[in-house]
Fold:
Amino acid sequence: MAPGRLVTGGAPMLEPFGTSVPVLYKCCRGAATDEKSLPPMLLAGLVLLVVEDDLDNLELVSSYLEGEGATVIGAGSLASALKLSADSELSALLSDLELPDGTGCDLLQRLRERDARDLPAIALTGYSDAKWRARAADCGFDRYAVKPFALEQLSEWLLELIDRKSDVPGASCHAVLDRAEPARQRR
Structure:
């Protein structure tokens, strides 16, 4: 899958975004980059599953994440999320808590069982009360975003969660380096 490509269950909802030119991105601490010619694509190299039953919200979040360089798999239900992500190595999940055929908690549990790892997860919801926050935390979501939220916050949380849940400090940036230019010698 190329960075910046939205994968959906039917016809693509968004046009492909991004470039296939291998580059090093600004998020990589200590990496040699030409910041004058490169956009700061903080999420390059990440594969994100975004699950939202509201099409406008799905397109908004997916478009933003693609603009940051991520590959986005977009789904409107639990079943389509599982099907579309079956052959992908996911970096993180961003999911609504209430879906037409289940819950974000059900989805997170099934993904973690299927992939046998502690997948970083952000709940996207319209519910701001403590009951919903506790429910999301109890089922394993790492962060809780109440709609409307600042899209930029998602990038910060994703990088922090991926680094925290990895055995390699700065893992989100190391993934970019490894995929961007494997032949380039690193100092």
